[in-house]
Every structure is written in structure tokens, then in C-alpha cells.
Amino acid sequence: MKAGGLLRADSPAEPGPPAARGLTGGWLGDVRAALLSVLFPASCRICEQLLTAATSIPICNDCLGSVRQITGTVCEKCGKPVEEAEAPDLEMLVCPTCVNDEWGGYAFDRARSWAIYEGALVRAILLLKFEDIDPLGKLFARRLAEVVTNSGAALQADVVVPVPLHRQRERERGYNQAALIAKPLAKLLGLPCKSVLLTRIRPRSDKHLLSYEERWESVRGAFATRPGSQVDNLRVLLVDDVMTSGATLDSCAKTLREAGARSVIGLTVARAVLKNATERLR
Questions:
Q1: Can you list the positions of beta strands (E) in the chain?
Q2: pLDDT (0 to 100) of residue 137
Q3: pLDDT of residue 51
Q4: Number of Cβ within a 10 Å radius of residue 123
């Protein structure tokens, strides 16, 4: 698997029309942000290095550049990075977990992720998840849009759907971090975003760290489509922040399939690479 870095945090955002930006949203706002960065320099929220440029993303370029993008060979089904020698089925190129269907296999058609869940990316996702840093969601959306575009027909969809939080968890947090990624992603792809199509009807366990088996049990029957939702024959792009075991995407995909979805593609910012997953799934 090849590794690659993230675009710089100070890469210019796409400007809107002059009339729409207004005075404070245009050059004056840029000047003000630059002055504030000089007078009150902020630190990177990951390594505490001073940020040298005005940016809405509180992470330095060194930390962002350390992210390992998934650019090599991946399992056709679950998107796990694999070496060709590891794939038992060389025609389809699937990982040992997916080629062994004794456990039933994933309900989604395929899943893809932008980068490996490690190091600075773990901290960045935690900032998005618990501190509502909207610019991070937009940054992740741009990277996922590139994943979709570069995959051609394989990831084509009709609608973008974020993995939902239970209503109690979303009420406590005030937002759903998956929606912070899904909404700008849908805009970039020119697709509708249906944040209310899926609902979580069973809350997640209060236990902070779950074992592999507990992850699967915690999402069994945990999701449902909202009454009146139109799912028939839709190709759904299901968005979340991290894919660990694949249990959450799998449970959501089962629900969407049962409601009539034509296909379900899982798309996450990060992918945790687990070892010996096949043995755990038996």
C-alpha cells in the first residue's frame, strides 16, 4: 500500500460570487483572519506547533501531511488494503475475510475509505466528533469526493446518507459528525443528502471501548428507515467517519436493503486495519 499526505490546511477554499461573499466574507475577512493569526497565534490541536497561516482548520500541515492515504490495492468488497499475494481470489481480488463467506459476508456491496485510522487522523476525527469543527467535515468531504471520482462507476450513487446517531446521543452532542461530512460531500457530488432516511432505534452501549464481538452485537437490529422514506431502487452512498469492524455499515446496509435499496456503498474517512478478522467472524 502506498502512502500519501493530505493537502495543506492553508489551501485556498473555493470562493463564491463577489455579491454573495459580501464585505466581511471577502478580502476584509481574509485580512482580519490574517491579522488575528499574527496577534493571537493558535497552536495545532494535535502537536501544539504554532500555526503559521490563517486557517479554519486547527491542525498544522505537518500533522495533516502525516496521514496515510489508501492508494494501493484494496479488497474489492470491504476496501481493506491488501497485497495481491494475500488475496485468495485473484479474479475479484478480495481479502481473506470477504472470500470466506461462512459468516455470511457484509450486507453492503462494497466499502471504501480515504486513509488509515492511525496517528494524527485519529485525533482529527475526535476533534470533529466531539468539538463540532465544521471545516474538518468539509475537508474530509473533499477527500471523499476524490475517492468517489477516482473510482469511476464503482461508487456511483443516487443519494448520500450519513450513518445516524441515536436521538439521545445526538441531542447530547448537538450534531451528528457523519452528517458534517455527508452534507458537503453530497453538494460536491451533486447528489441529495438524506440525513433523516435512516434512524438509530437502539442506543450504543455506554461502554467506551467495545471488543470486536461487542461491536457486532451493539448494532444488531439497531437501525431502521423512517416511516414514509423512499428507498426503493436507490443506490445509497452510506457515509461515516471510521470503519473498524464494518459492523455499523453492515447493519445500516441490511436495513436499507430490506427497505428496497438497489445497492449500498459504504464510504468512510478512515479505515482501521484489523488482523485475523476472519477468525473473529466465525
A1: 110-116, 159-162, 198-200, 223-225, 235-243, 263-271
A2: 96
A3: 87
A4: 14
In the chain, the number of structural domains is 2
> Which residue matches cell numbers 481480488?
93
> CB under 8 Å, gap of 24 or more: what pairs does 250-253 form?
250/106, 250/107, 250/108, 250/219, 251/107, 251/219, 251/220, 251/221, 251/222, 251/223, 252/161, 252/163, 252/198, 252/223, 253/106, 253/107, 253/108, 253/109
Residue with cell 482580519: 32
- For residue 176, give the C-alpha cell: 451528528
Q: Which domain range does residue 50 map to? A: 18-65
Measure the CA–CA gap between 79 and 243, rounded to whole angstroms: 10
- Say if residue 152 is in the same domain as residue 40: no
Task: Give pTM, 2 decimals.
Answer: 0.81
Residue pointed to by grid coordinates 435512516: 198
User: Residue 234: which of 265, 267, 199 has the closest Cα?
Assistant: 265
Same domain, 186 and 112: yes
Burial of 27 (0-12, 13-18, 19+ CB in 10 A): exposed
**pLDDT recorded at residue 6:** 40
Give the model's pLDDT for residue 9.
Answer: 43
pLDDT of residue 170: 93
Asked if 37 contacts 54 with a C-beta cutoff of 8 angstroms, the reply is yes
Q: Cell match 486513509: residue?
A: 115
With beta carbons less than 8 A apart as the criterion, state whether 279 and 251 touch.
no
Let me know the angle formed at the C-alpha of 140 by 268 and 255, rounded to the nearest 5 degrees: 30
Both 252 and 184 in one domain: the answer is yes
Q: What is the pLDDT of residue 272?
A: 93
Which of the residues in the chain have pLDDT under 70?
1-40, 84-92, 101, 206-209, 275-282
